[in-house]
Amino acid sequence: MKNFFILIALFMPSLAVAQDITQHYKIYDVKNGKITTIDAIINHLNSANVLFFGEEHNDSIGHYLETELFKKMAITYPGKTAITMEMFHTDIQPVINEYLKGIISEKNFIKEARAWNNYKDYKPMIELAKVNQLDVIGGNAAARYSNVVTRGGLVVLNQLPENSKAFFAPLPIDTATGRYYDKFIETLGGHSMGGMKVYQTQNFWDATMAWSIAKYVKKNKDKKIFQVNGRFHSDEKLGTLAKLKSYAPKLKIINISCFSADDFDNPDWNKYKQLGDYVIVTNPKVKRSF
Asked: Can you spell out the DSSP letters for 89-149?
């Protein structure tokens, strides 16, 4: 209980600040067709195992909401909450664990865990986990392996030493077809062999993040998992989320799509409802984090 008093002191914004921030986001419950709250999402998690938060990496309000959700999960499910993150790689898990145990310095953690340049946006969740002894799982594949796929395709992964293969999803990794592929090509701007290899890299990331979650859940069946990733990885329940369903079909998953919306003042929820169980739009006038 002592840890939770510390948690609240560290991460609960002042009432004035909280009231100000609430003016800059709107949460829509797709199933029930109504505006809802963070607390309602936490209640929904009673009947689920994994909560995906699909973010825009530079969305300041989105980062605030991630921390709020993780904090409320930690309070609601004390000792039974963990976070898996796109922002850290599987091969630096020992570094994450060493920092969470208070053994290594933050400076060394940031350097040796290869933290993103905007680590300050994710730091509150890491510190929350550290204070409350919650697991943080680096979910993504290291850039050196992603680069291998981008240059030569998924098949090149077979050439890696067996101990290297322990850091990413088991081979072979399927390349998703259908809607996910179509979305990717639209984003990329057209078809090309180079584009296909980049798409295979996208699938490699998805598979490795999903595998990281499935592997953790298998050993920690009572945990509630908070997965944080770029929203392309989980919008429309595709990408990482779809891969997770293939690895662990019995898991119950909730997904959130959060993004800055030009129609923030009067959102067209019908336009966004296919993106997730919950859609969060944030105020585009709020300064980006980078």
From this structure: EGGGHHHHHHHHTT-S-HHHHHHHTT--TTGGGTHHHHHHHHHHT-EEEEEEPPHHHHHHH
Q: Are the C-beta atoms of 251 and 242 separated by less than 8 Å? A: no
Residue whose token pair is 């920092």: 99
198 pLDDT exceeds 60? yes
- State percent of the chain over pLDDT 70: 91
CATH of 25-56+68-272, one of 3.40.50.11550, 3.30.43.10, 3.40.50.300, 3.90.330.10: 3.40.50.11550
* Whether the Cβ atoms of residue 160 and residue 167 lie closer than 8 Å to each other: no
Residue 241: exposure state from Cβ atoms within 10 A (0-12, 13-18, ≥19): buried
Question: Which residues have C-beta within 8 Å of that of residue 96, sequence separation ≥ 6?
Answer: 88, 109, 113, 136, 137, 138
pLDDT in tens, 101-125: 999 999 999 999 999 999 999 999 9
